[in-house]
Give the backbone structure.
Amino acid sequence: MLKRISALVLAGLTALAVTSCGSGSGGTTSASSGGGDSTVTMGFSQVGAESGWRTANTKSVQESAKTAGITLKFSDAQQKQENQIKAIRSFIQQRVDVIAFSPVVESGWDPVLKEAQNAKIPVILTDRAVDSKDTTLYKTFLGSDFIEEGKKAGQWLVEEYKDSTDKVNIVELQGTTGSAPANDRKAGFQEVIGADTKFQIVATQTGDFTRAKGKEVMEAFLKSTPDIDVLYAHNDDMGLGAIEAIEGAGKVPGKDIKIITVDAVKDGMQALADGKINFIVECSPLLGPQLMDLAKKVVKGEEVPARVVTEETTFTQDQAKQALPSRQY
Ligand code: GYE
């Protein structure tokens, strides 16, 4: 009997020792800083590498982690929710200190977020939102206001056609189906142009935020839809793919078909400066530094704002020419 009790006590002590040593850095050896502060380990699940925006975002997260002295476990989901769920489960298993992720779509996250909550690992939503009713499942959401971006796109169009009463035929290349930026950029745009019936979205389809799909879908639009006046693409990459399709069909992008995109990555800005795109709504991918700040705070148990919105602007062709030389991404 006594033997059994002492075995239990021993087992308890061992468990205590295991949980109290290290800060849950799992398989990696995390260096301690001089002050005795153990290094924060972050598990980050990225959407993929679908666009120039995403590449710049990944770079920003990786570089900022290094600068902030945060050990980063980075996982690329190749645009698949199931891969992100697997990555998050593996971060939980490895007992990272904080999980950050950019949810590919808005729905279906509650079970895995609950698992993280039960394991007492704080979660930070980066770039994209989830539609979970239970907002205690994550600490904060850092990223752009995509509805606002859609509205800005719509406002430019309204201004551009303010002196005309003719019908304006618009085709729309949507981002990844079910993703926050696709849902919100569509909704914001629609809200603004919906006030005037001369604006008609005559065709709309997803181009999955990629150049290849943007080109393919635009080719189909050009065949099926006569008299396209305007293309609204939810990101630069799809717009750039569409430009190839428009040129391939013997039309002049920026003139025969006016083009509005979102992001303002270098290639997009170049096309804008060259007159092939007419207006770009900026969406900043440089979320790394703010993310690392927030991560350190939530790991320490400090209060953080529930929503941190990125500051952004818009660019006309002239503004793009000026901004291009100093553009970071
Ligand atoms: O606009 C697009 C990327 O979530 C804001 O994802 C991001 C979007 C961005 O693929 O280019």
Notes: Residues 38-144+285-311 form a domain with the Rossmann fold fold (CATH 3.40.50.2300). The CA atoms of residues 30 and 216 lie 46 Å apart. DSSP finds eleven helices and twelve strands in the chain. Residues 50-51, 53-54, 127-128, 181, 209, 235, 237, 262-263, 283 surround beta-D-fucofuranose (CB under 6 Å).
